[in-house]
Design a protein that fits this description.
By secondary structure, the chain is of the alpha/beta class. Helix content is 43%, strand content 12%.
Length: 164
C-alpha cells in the first residue's frame, strides 16, 4: 500500500493528489493507494481518500505502507522516519498556489543533503519513476534520523570525567 499525505495546510495540493491518482488509473501504481488530501479540491477516482485522519490512524497507515509520500512539511516526513520508513517528499510550491513561498522546497532539499534519508521529488513528472524504483533507491539509504544528541552526551561525559 502507498500512503500519501498533504498535511493540514489550508491551501490545496491538487497537483500531488491528481498525479498519484493518474498513476493509479494508468496502472503505473498497482498497489492500493490511500490519500489524505486535506484542503485539496481534486477528488481522486482510483484511490481511497479522506480529507483528514486522526493522528493515531495516520501513524497506523504509515506503519502499514510500503511507500509514504508526503508534502514538504517537517512533521509529515519526520514521522515516517521515526517509524523507519524513507519518505518520498514532494514539496508544495508557491507557483502552483500550494503555499505562501517555497520554504518546503528549500527545507526538504537541505534535509536531503544533510541527512540523506528522504527522497525529494521537485518535478512531479518524475514521481512515477521514483515510485517504480523506490526499493532500489532506498536500499543504500539510512532510514534512521541522525541526531547530534548522542555525540553531545559523549563529549559532555568526557568533560565531566576529566574534571574528576
Amino acid at each position: 500500500m502507498i500512503f500519501v499525505t498533504v498535511g493540514t495546510h489550508e491551501q490545496q495540493f491538487n497537483r500531488l493528489a491528481k498525479c498519484v491518482d493518474e498513476l493509479k488509473m494508468k496502472n503505473d501504481i498497482k498497489e492500493d493507494v490511500i490519500i489524505q488530501k486535506g484542503y485539496s479540491t481534486y477528488k481522486p477516482k482510483a484511490c481511497e481518500c479522506s480529507d483528514f485522519f486522526p493522528y493515531k490512524e495516520m501513524v497506523s497507515l504509515v506503519e502499514k505502507a510500503r511507500i509514504v509520500i508526503t508534502h514538504g512539511g517537517p512533521s509529515s516526513f519526520i514521522m515516517p522516519l521515526q517509524i523507519g520508513k524513507i519518505p518520498i517528499v514532494v514539496p508544495r510550491k508557491k507557483e502552483f498556489d500550494e503555499h505562501v513561498n517555497d520554504h518546503q522546497l528549500n527545507f526538504s532539499k537541505a534535509v536531503a543533503k544533510r541527512q540523506g534519508n528522504i527522497l525529494v521529488v521537485e518535478d512531479i513528472e518524475k514521481l512515477g519513476e521514483t515510485i517504480e524504483r523506490y526499493d532500489d533507491i532506498v536500499a543504500a539509504m539510512p532510514a534512521e534520523m541522525k541526531s547530534n544528541n548522542a555525540k553531545f552526551c559523549e563529549e559532555l561525559e568526557k568533560i565531566v570525567q576529566g574534571m574528576f
